[in-house]
Each structure stands twice: as structure tokens, then as C-alpha cells.
Amino acid sequence: MEYDPSMFQHGVKPSSQFDNPTDPLNYALARLNEERDVTLRLTPHIDTLNDVILRLIKDRSQSISSAVVELGTGTGATTASILQRSPDTQLVCVDFNTSRLERAAVRLASHLGQITFEVSDAVNYLRTIKDDSVACIVTASMLHNLPLQYRRIILSEVHRVLSPGGMFVDADKHGYRDPHIDEELFRQQIALIAQNFMDKPEYSRDWVAHFTEDYDKDEKREDYLGYLEDMGFEAQSVFGFGLDIVVSAQKIKTK
Ligand SMILES: C[S@@+](CC[C@H](N)C(=O)[O-])C[C@H]1O[C@@H](n2cnc3c(N)ncnc32)[C@H](O)[C@@H]1O
Fold it and tell me: 55: Cβ–Cβ under 8 A, 6 or more apart, which residues?
């Protein structure tokens, strides 16, 4: 199928945080602190979740020499948690948003020797990689933002480039097929936002809108894991808290 990334890039802002002329470095650091505060309010268990990602990647990267590919690095929150505690890991950090990668470079300043930044759409980047050549690919909080059709194109590229036995690690939000559990977890997520952003009603409004939109287009975890299995992965959820899961998917079949 012909792939046109512009179909999927609505809302990407080309602006840079370095457009603040007076003190770009401190501006970037302040934004990173603010982001950490918001993340902790939205996902109080974020450090545990990142520990699980780290463990999966470390297991993998100790036995391989190639770099781990991270899709949707953003400002590097997950990346930092990996690199700080895995000094031998090399990462290729892919994101199509230049300003977010610039901010990641500020956050990751003491790890730049471990990183190659790629300003690119995820599919376009993966299409530059040979079949069966990458041992580990990780992504966090990226796929749920994307239309299902596009997620599937990414997953098929991920599967193609992973080496046999290679590992895909995906941390993201997914509901359950069971509507009672699903609705209850969604209700808890919205209640958490209301409770944790009482002092910032505009954030509360925006995040409720964002999660409601995600919920409406959610692929339930059972369907996602089943889809990965059908593609030739052995897939399981190795961490679950509320709507958040960490999926580890090992490529067991080549096409
Ligand atoms: C919610 S952020 C998550 C950032 C980071 N993974 C984390 O856990 O903090 C999602 C990131 O994915 C990037 N992204 C979304 N779609 C993408 C695509 N098609 N190709 C590359 N990056 C993409 C966005 O620019 C954004 O920085």
C-alpha cells in the first residue's frame, strides 16, 4: 500500500522551544519540569512502569550489539529512564517533531554519546532499515494517538525489521473487552484527572478531552495482543495498572 505520512500528522507543531530568544536552555528545563509534574499527576505509577520497560530492554540489549530503536521519543522521559540505568545501551531516538527532540537533547545532555537522533516519521524511518536486522524496538505512549490503520502499518514495519527472536516493547493505554471493567477503569482515569488537577482546571479539561477521544478509538488489550499474535509475535502484557499496560512481543515467525 502506498504510504502518505501527511495523512496522519495533523496537529504537529513545527515550532521550537528554542524560539524563546532570551534563555532557551532554562526555558527548556522549566518545560521539562512542568512535564514531569503533569506526568506524575496523570500516571502516578510512571516510575514502576518505566522500571518494567527498562528491565525488558536490559535483558535484550545485554545480549546484542545493535542499537535499540525508540519510536516517538518525544522529550525523552522514557529514554532518560532507560539510559540513566543502562549505560551500555545505544538508542536510536525517532520522532517527527523537531522541537520535542531538541528538548529531549537538553534532558539527555549527559547521555548524548549513547544516542542517535532521527527526525523522521516512524514508518519512513523503519523503511530505511533492512529486514530482520534490529534486536529491540521500544515505544511509549505513542501508538494510542494514531489512527488504527497507521498503527498497523507501523507494526508491520516493526515486525519486518526485527530480527528473529527480536523484541518489541510497547507501553500504552488500552481498555478491556469486558465493558464493565472497561468503563470502570475509564471512570477511574477521569476521576484521577479531576482530583489531581484541581489547581489547574484548564489542564483538567484538556486531559479529559484527550482521554475521552482516545477511549472512543481504543483498541482493547485483548484485540491488540491477538493482532500481534496473528502477525507472528508471541505477545503478552507484562505490567498492568489501570488502563496502562506494557506489552512485550517477541518475533517468532518471519513472513
Ligand atoms: C505522547 S508522546 C510520548 C513521548 C515519550 N515516548 C514518552 O513516553 O514520554 C508521543 C510522541 O510520539 C511522536 N509521534 C507521534 N506520531 C509519530 C510518528 N508517526 N512518527 C514519529 N513520531 C511520532 C510525537 O511527536 C510525540 O513526541
Answer: none
